[in-house]
Amino acid sequence: MTDDSAQQLFDRLDLREYEATALRQLLTVGRTTAPNLAEGTGIPRARIYEVLATLADAGYVKEVPGRPKEYEAKHPEAIVERAIENRRQSFETFREDVQSLRAPFLEEFGPLYERASGDVTPTEDLFHVVDVGQPSETETRQLYADAEDEICVLTKGFEYFEAIEPAFADAYARDVSIRVLLLDPASLSETNRDIQAAVIDRLQSEYPAVEVRFSNEALPWRGTLVDPSMDYETGTAIVLVEEKDVPLSMRQAAVTENGSFVAGLGRYFELIWGHDSTPVT
Questions:
Q1: What residues contact 38, with CB distance under 8 A and at least 6 apart?
Q2: Whole-angstrom Cα distance, residue 136 to residue 49?
Q3: Which residues pair with residue 32 across a beta bridge?
Q4: Alpha-carbon distance 147 to 228, whole Å?
Q5: What is the strand order of the sheet 177-183 is part of?
Q6: Could you tell me if 247 and 116 are in contact, meaning their C-beta atoms sit under 8 angstroms apart?
Q7: pLDDT tens-digit profile of 67-115?
Q8: Are 179 and 152 in contact (CB under 8 A)?
């Protein structure tokens, strides 16, 4: 692991500067006392016991009784597993807290929302927009989580795959059918071709049931469709139109739950998939 990747992990563990410094030192030098650790790291002695207590409470460090007391980092694998378990427990607590407040929240705001939404026209209710980047990735992950039967993806290189992969993997594990339509690599820059090739390798090696094809022509819009149907009863989507002169950070994506609109997008996807694309080999 490089120093940068180690710091990225410490950041993901929500460790503050002194905590990350102390844990790194303990992993490097082994068991030691708090005063020696303070001296070796530059952490003020007035803070070192608080720092070590935080690490011990998180399960990353163990205290060794004695005179003087010593401290030792747990094995790196144990630290990673404990971090995952800590986050899982935190989520379960959050979920239970929110669930306990569901009924009174719905009772108070459900009728108010219904009255306030009564004057919205069908056109106004067709879609809403989110910024491209983290907001659109959050919406996309939710689409994957809600999918029951089918997910259709139109994308240049699936460069955001890593950001949505946990939700992608969960949908795959639920046997949701997933098809990915990529732009032909001949139409991509060298950098984007490399990104696309890496994603294709991941899909073929880790998600072999996913179908992947290349679109023969440009894709004027890109996005994700979930459960489109010609009875217009189901379907959600997030779409982004091609705007070459607009920086990605300034673009917006449209999110729709209109079954008729999603059915139309689904027909577009099927036409390209069946008549204007080639298999990825």
A1: 44, 45, 48
A2: 43
A3: 71
A4: 10
A5: 128-131, 252-256, 236-241, 221-226, 150-155, 177-183, 211-215, 277-279
A6: no
A7: 889 999 999 999 999 999 998 899 999 999 999 999 999 999 998 888 8
A8: yes
